[in-house]
Batch of 2 targets.
Target 1
Amino acid sequence: MSRWIRSFSTAASSLLADASHSLRQPSSFPVFRDVSPIRKLRRQLLQKDRTVGFVPTMGALHEGHISLIRQAARENTDVFVSIYVNPTQFGVNEDLSSYPRTWDSDMQKLEVLNKELADLKQEAPGRITAIFAPTSKIMYPTLPPSSEIDGEGSFVTITPLSKKLEGSSRPVFFRGVATVCMKLFNAVTPDRVYFGQKDVQQTVIIKRMVRDFLVGTEVRIVPTARAADGLAMSSRNVYLGDRRRSVGLTLHRALVAAEQAYQAGKIARADILGPARAITNRIVAEQQALSPTERALFEADYISLADPETLDELEVVDPSKGAVLSGAFKMAPLEESKPGEDCGLGDGKVPVRLIDNLILPSRD
Ligand SMILES: Nc1ncnc2c1ncn2[C@@H]1O[C@H](COP(=O)(O)OP(=O)(O)OP(=O)(O)O)[C@@H](O)[C@H]1O
Ligand SMILES: CC(C)(CO)[C@@H](O)C(=O)[O-]
Ligand code: BAL
């Protein structure tokens, strides 16, 4: 057993007694439900010159989350993962109640991953050494968490970034994300925090928040993990089913068509987004022409070509800066299913918001 694992075991076991709100502990990592015990562990690690990489999640873990943890384990001795479905980032009519919650399988996945990390040794020296799974009473100690646009509470708002793109359809989303991330960062005080490229606007907002509030952590962005067909992995994909999944892939295909236009030397908005819009409009029309048992209706909420830092829409890409291509589709519930069809969790009745993006790199 290496020295730091041994010293972790000692630090952790002395803390298990402190973790009065901890859940059952069948795993190689303690689960903390409250702030002070995880702070205590953090202080002990600091004294031993160990580094903490923090991966905030809402659970329902998939390969995207795992890739964040792997990178955190390559760059830190200790990886803390939070699992908390944060109510304030869901609008009042959004899918908070149906958001997938899969605690047992999440713990199993983390356990398997930790064993793998132990085998990797040099390549990825870090291990998952704490799970933070707070209750809402811990995260919102004074007022109940509000999802109302003008709701009361202590919030972190990052404007105008939070009003654009996802924010125009989900007006409280980034207020909730920035607020919960600030709380999580305050609880964990990580050396580095890990976010997925899939949620590109979230990455821009978190970087801005860290900079503007002088938060002492480094923001690391991990590439989007995709299924073999290109669909960006997402916890909500379990609701898609086969039909909506294959139609939903149009989003990725549209972005790839726009990316190819940029790679071919185009820099004007119409030339880059034109191919993406053409594919999207064609598939919308094709689906509308099909019968309710065959089609998957959807609406393209936006397809955007934006500045990587301000997220302002661009008429022309400055090749020395590059750009962010992003889009969101609203996949409607299936109208009718066929016998034996895989309609996904919820029988195809749950609307699913798909987001995706590609970075257009700078070039000389
Ligand atoms: N496919 C992916 N590739 C890389 N990172 C991802 C991917 N999906 C999610 N992440 C990242 O994992 C972290 C936690 O995300 P979260 O728990 O909300 O999962 P999610 O799959 O994004 O859920 P949903 O898409 O349903 O909102 C975020 O930083 C997010 O960007
Ligand atoms: C960062 C986050 C965990 C905050 O709740 C969430 O927005 C997410 O999972 O991307
Ligand atoms: N990964 C983003 C979380 C959300 O859509 O609420």
Note: DSSP finds eleven helices and nine strands in the chain.
Target 2
Amino acid sequence: MIKPTIKVCGLTKLNQIQELVDLKIDFLGFIFYEKSPRYVLNHLSLEQISETNHPGKVGVFVNEDLEKIVEISGKAKLNFIQLHGDETEDFISELRQRLNREIKIIKVIRIGNQTSDELQKTINQQPTTINYLLFDTDSKAFGGTGNAFDWNVLNDIEIPIPYFLSGGISLENFNQLTTINHQPIALDINSKFEIEAGNKDLEKVKEFISLIEK
Ligand SMILES: O=C(O)c1ccccc1NCC(=O)[C@H](O)[C@H](O)COP(=O)(O)O
């Protein structure tokens, strides 16, 4: 398995963010979705996020107003926008035009009980302006459920661009990732590495890093 990068998502604490920066975690995920128990603006200001000096700051949005995404991305100095809802092709194209050119777009595809043909169709319909896909488990909460989907479905489809894998990744199921033919460029970890929502268990994160580096 080629060594993937790591995204730790759902950060809310400055001291933990600093420790993750020191650990050279590749992506730091901040959730800008009010209904999430990890809604970052309940804990940190946009200024505090902007002062975090890291090239992989990802803002996670769910069916958010376009102007608000543009405003937050500027004020928080985000490097990536993760669209985790049902954003349309037109919305994404307009967002691309409005965002700073340096900011990359990650489009999430939530995997539920679609057939592989349906999934392929969804992937093929994505605008060419997106930079990455991210596969997560479908749920009413949109994300952060700790549930993994059947990763074998990824072997039945063609994934045209680099992708992040998420949804219930844990220390326990990490070894099953080897069954995926087209490997993700990044593993997105979240609720399986928490003491409570938004409060990360950094010892577990360190263990995960050492597993990946083996
Ligand atoms: O984490 C959340 O609370 C969340 C809520 C709504 C939309 C997205 C959310 N998280 C985004 C992520 O990228 C998570 O890392 C991803 O859903 C996987 O989470 P988990 O299944 O807990 O590992």
Note: The chain has six helices and ten strands.
